[in-house]
Each structure stands twice: as C-alpha cells, then as structure tokens.
Amino acid sequence: MSNGNGIAASTIRVEAGDTGDGSGVVAVLTIDSPAKLNAMGRGFWPELREALSRLATDGRTRAVIITGAGDKAFSAGGDIASFAELTDVAAKREFQQDCMRTFAAVEESPLPIIAAVNGFAMGGGCELALACDVVVAADTAMFGMPECSVGLVPGFGVLRAPSVIGRQWTKLMMFGGERVDAATALRIGLAQKVVPAGELLSAARELAGRFAAMAPLAVATGKNLVNRGVDRGEFDHSTGALTTLHATADAAEGIAAFLGKRAPRFEGR
User: Any idea which architecture 12-199+211-229 has in CATH?
Assistant: First the structure.
C-alpha cells in the first residue's frame, strides 16, 4: 500500500459501530501490521491524521479508540529501517515535522481518543499513548522510550511525558531505557486503567461509550481547555533538536547497529 508519494503506508484499519444506546458512534482505529509489531512506517503519520480528520467531521463519531493488531504490541514504535532512507537534512526535518503534526492532531481532535494498549508501546507507540486523552492498558502492556539507544530522543515524548509522569520518570525511561509495566504505568499516571488482556477492547469500548454519551461540544471544549497549556512553539524546538541528532554520526551508527543486530559504538559526534 502507498500513500501516493511512493512511501509505503502502515495500514490503519477503521471500524465504526454504534454504542447501541443511541449515544453515538465509537470508531476503533487499529494499527494493522502485526508481523512488524505494528511499527510505524513513514506513511503512518499522514494516514492517521487523515483518519482522525474524517471521523471528526463525519457528524456521527463521538469517540475513538486506537489499538494495535494482535496481542503482542500496540506499536513497537517507528520503523527504524525507514530512518535510513532519510538521506538529507531536509528529509529528516520534514519527517520530524510530520510526526509532530500527527501527535498534535491527536491532541487537538475534538473527539475523545482512548489508547487501548495491548502489548508493547515502545518509542513512537509510547508517544502516541501519551498524546491520547486516556490510556487503558492490558495487564500485559509494556511501555518504553528507548530512542537514546540509537542516538536519538523521543521528540514528542520529551515534551509531553514530563507533564504526565514527571521529569524524573521521563529521564529514567529515556536515559536508562527503563521499561514500564502496566502496574507501574498505572501508578505513575501513564495509564489510567489496567484490565486483563482479554477484556481490553471491551473495557475501552465501555469507556468510549461513556464519553460518547456526553454532550459532544462540551467534550470538545473541555478537551481544548485541559490542553491549553500545551505550547506548540516547543514543537519547533524539538523538531530542530531531533533534526540535528538525526544528522549525527552517532545516530547513523545507532541505526546501523540496530539493523545489524549488534551493540552500537557511540563516539559523541
């Protein structure tokens, strides 16, 4: 599948169903690439924005659930193999801007968006969960932001995680590669509900139905007001910093080491 620019697009499966009580429609967006642990290719970012835009304007949808196909991963994060295709600074910057536009689209959508985390939520997968309004996690879920291991940082996570889980937990996850299980995620505020894996989607649907039953304008206004403290100017700062990191020798080494399944040899340049 292609997004029209020759870039392979991650498949996002969209299913919509009425809540059954007349309160509205709940849409389930499934990142559907289980063979790659639902890794996010370059086409994923505009595809998710387009899907959310359609749902927000269809006049029917009242709430959205984002989840991953299979039972192993919500998303293992960005498809690191695709990073190697970003051969110049302009391409690296455009990629970072595209990711940030998508995280902003999740936060700024008038619809309440629930992340149903069904396994690994690593890197961009963890960042996507952070962008959603509420996280419902399976008891088997695992969160992480390991970008420093390939010479990068999570461009959105470094901005949003401190306000969700605090600065120190953000640093531990970033610099120490700390993986956070579902119970810990609930304790530190990364998840708001934890349920048995087999009950994840039913729990997310139940919560989405409650959201859908509320006055949609009130929900949209409330979401906007809660998120008012978000300074989009920070996105430019993060994009610039990530573009610089992408151009370093350490990042090239980290990506090559990841693809070659060996330990990286970082030199600080």
Answer: Alpha-Beta Complex (3.90)
The per-residue pLDDT for range 221-250, each reduced to its tens digit, is 999 888 876 566 666 656 666 677 667 877
Distances (CA, A) of 103 to 71, 120, 225: 24, 19, 17
Question: Are 60 and 24 within 8 A, CB to CB?
Answer: yes
**Nearest Cα to 111, choosing from 249, 258, 220?**
220
- As a whole number of angstroms, the distance between CA 193 and CA 139 comes to 10
Q: Is 85 a catalytic residue?
A: no
Cβ-based neighbours of 134, under 8 Å, separated by 6 or more: 112, 114, 115, 192, 193, 207
Q: Following DSSP, what letter does each residue of 93-158 receive, concatenated? A: HHHHHHHHHHHHHHHH-SS-EEEEE-SEEETHHHHHHHHSSEEEEETT-EEE--GGGGT---TTHH
Tell me which of 15, 127, 206, 234 is the catalytic residue.
127
Candidate list 94, 147, 178, 199, residue with the active-site label: 147
**Domain range summary for the chain, segments of one domain joined by +:** 12-199+211-229
Residue 126 CA to residue 132 CA, distance in Å, equals 10
Told to judge if 147 belongs to the known catalytic residues of this protein, a careful annotator would answer yes
Regions of the chain short of the pLDDT cut 70: 1-10, 229-242, 245-246, 255, 268
What 230-237 contacts at long range (C-beta under 8 Å, 24+ apart), as own/partner pairs, is 230/107, 232/104, 234/159, 235/100, 235/104, 235/159
pLDDT for position 235:
63
